[in-house]
């Protein structure tokens, strides 16, 4: 399993309509993952998808602890959104002409 990231210039649309500019003088930008351990269900064809959803010790991501954020976690997420998030594609109705991604209809906490 691999994790990929990308960086792209969205100065003109994803930063409060171009009001917040990226400081390119700080480049090159570096990101790293600390204490990252990839855990996944091995793909063995279409049948394995349903096996990955069965609650079991092997499928720890199906346990109740991962089904919903705690009140404390919801508060932490709200703080980050309120203080650090400058763009949310789920509220960008103009750019996407009302055709929002399916995940935007899910609870946003």
TrEMBL record:
This protein's UniProt keywords: Glycosidase, Hydrolase, Transferase
This protein's record includes keyword Transmembrane helix: no
Organism: Tanacetum coccineum
UniProt protein name: xyloglucan:xyloglucosyl transferase
Reaction catalyzed: breaks a beta-(1->4) bond in the backbone of a xyloglucan and transfers the xyloglucanyl segment on to O-4 of the non-reducing terminal glucose residue of an acceptor, which can be a xyloglucan or an oligosaccharide of xyloglucan
InterPro entries the record matches: Beta-glucanase-like, Beta-glucanase/XTH, ConA-like_dom_sf, XET_C
Domain GH16: 1-25
UniProt keyword annotation of Ligase present: no
Tree of life domain: Eukaryota
Pfam family, any one: Glyco_hydro_16
Domain Xyloglucan endo-transglycosylase C-terminal, chain residue ranges per copy: 57-104
Gene3D superfamilies linked: 2.60.120.200
Enzyme class: transferase
EC number: 2.4.1.207
């Amino acid at each position: 399993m691999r994790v990929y990231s990308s960086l792209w210039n969205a100065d003109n649309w994803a930063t409060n309509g171009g009001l917040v500019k990226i400081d390119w003088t700080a480049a090159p930008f570096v990101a790293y993952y600390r204490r990252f351990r990839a855990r996944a269900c091995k793909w063995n064809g279409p049948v394995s998808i349903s096996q990955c959803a069965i609650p079991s010790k092997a499928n720890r991501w199906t346990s109740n602890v991962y089904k919903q954020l705690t009140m404390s976690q919801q508060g932490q997420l709200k703080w980050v959104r309120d203080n650090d998030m400058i763009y949310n594609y789920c509220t960008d109705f103009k750019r996407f002409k009302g055709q929002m991604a399916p995940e935007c209809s899910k609870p946003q906490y």
